[in-house]
Design a protein that fits this description.
- There is one protein chain.
- It contains 13 helices and 14 strands.
- The chain is of the alpha/beta class and 368 residues long.
- It has 2 domains: 187 residues, 3-Layer(aba) Sandwich (Rossmann fold); 157 residues, 3-Layer(aba) Sandwich (Rossmann fold).
- The strands form 2 sheets. The protein has an 8-stranded mixed sheet, with helices on both faces. It has a 6-stranded parallel sheet with strand order 11-10-9-12-13-14, sandwiched between helices.
- β10, α7 and β11 form a beta-alpha-beta unit.
- The two termini are 17 Å apart.
Length: 368
């Protein structure tokens, strides 16, 4: 089977920087059985191509991207016919996918994996901020041959649009993240926390730091690694200083996957404070290492709570602080949640994701 896979980016030629590990894991597995041609809309400013994870990447570039992407898919189809076009994320990727598929008279598949259906005007985030974008998403998703989504809350949002979809989480590559059983905390030891996310408005590190400050005032000793690229120009670090908790925080910046696993492995809890997530992937990676998540009511955190995660309302720093403290003070419950999270994350790993998409490919391309 020949597959045109449309992505926004995350497929840098380095295979390490500016990449999305779950996406590379999926591409590598699909490429074992299919000719996968990846069309990256904005991996780099200039058009280029390279091989990665067994697939061939076509970087479209930053000028007239959508039109040129459709043209590139059609040109590649003429040399060797595609069986379907698959978008990971909708938005511009979805529009390119359904347009090319209609022109070529082949099936299209769209996976919702981010904020395509979200509107958070207070922070200027979401693919549905403007009426034109909302209309485009409705048309694109109703035109697609099939739609998938990473988690139950996204399926619910699609249902409100009248779109039927299937749940396909982007799972962890267990070759890179070998599972490990939850470990017992040393009684009375300083708690080891970790937060993995780019520093930006939607990840809401403000709520995270306010919660940590409340946790410190309650007498809980902790140290937290905050891992992720800083897009806010030091704003989060400055807030940590004002709150008096800078000494308990290690701002790590971007950390490659090969080094990230070691940081997650020594943590007692993964903490997330996002205003929106389809995942988050960091939660799944922590789960396979036996580290449970305390976070806001988004994505997998919502669908896994209460048995495999602890969930609090979005933006509620006090509730987040209390939930962290409660789980740190109840080792039996922390381990119970960690074991259940481990089972779920390993059951729905990267191999599971590839199998689910393969089943969809077979159904979409079967003779009718």
């Amino acid at each position: 089977m020949r597959v045109a896979l449309v992505v926004p980016g995350g497929v840098d030629r380095s295979g390490e920087y500016r990449v999305i590990p779950a996406l590379l894991a999926l591409i590598g597995r699909l490429a074992l059985h299919h000719d996968v041609q990846v069309f990256a809309l904005r991996q780099g400013e200039h058009a280029d191509s390279w091989d990665l994870a067994g697939a061939h990447v076509h970087n479209i570039g930053s000028s007239h991207t959508r039109l040129r992407a459709v043209r590139a898919i059609c040109n590649a189809h003429r040399s060797s016919r595609f069986d379907l076009v698959h978008a990971i994320w909708s938005g511009p990727c979805g529009l390119v996918t359904v347009t090319a598929a209609k022109i070529l008279a082949i099936p299209s598949l769209i996976h919702i994996g981010g904020g395509e259906l979200v509107s958070l005007p207070g922070i200027g985030y979401g693919g549905s901020l403007r009426w034109r974008s909302r209309l485009r998403e409705k048309l694109v998703l109703r035109t697609a041959s099939a739609v998938t989504a990473a988690s139950a809350p996204v399926l619910q949002a699609l249902g409100h649009l009248g779109v039927t979809a299937q749940r396909v989480p982007l799972g962890v590559d267990l070759r890179s993240w070998p599972p490990r059983a939850p470990r017992l905390r040393s009684q009375g030891a300083c708690a080891r926390l970790i937060h993995v996310a780019s520093l930006n408005r939607v990840k809401d590190q403000t709520t995270l730091l306010v919660a940590l400050a409340e946790l410190a005032r309650s007498g809980t000793r902790f140290e937290i690694d905050i891992v992720g690229e800083d897009t806010l120009g030091g704003e989060v670090q400055a807030l940590a200083s004002r709150l008096g908790i800078a000494g308990s925080i290690n701002f790590r910046g971007f950390v490659p996957q090969r080094d990230l696993r070691a940081l997650v492995a020594v943590a007692d809890l993964m903490i997330m404070a996002s205003r929106h997530e389809a995942g988050p992937m960091a939660m799944l990676e922590a789960a396979v290492l036996g580290v449970p998540t305390v976070g806001t009511a988004v994505g997998h955190i919502t669908e896994w709570a209460p048995g495999a995660a602890t969930c609090v309302p979005v933006g509620d720093a006090t509730a987040l602080a209390r939930a962290i403290g409660a789980l740190l003070n109840d080792e039996e419950q922390r381990l119970r949640i960690a074991h259940e999270a481990l089972q779920r994350a390993t059951r729905e790993d990267a191999d599971f994701t590839a199998r689910r998409f393969q089943t969809l490919y077979d159904g979409l391309t079967a003779p009718r």
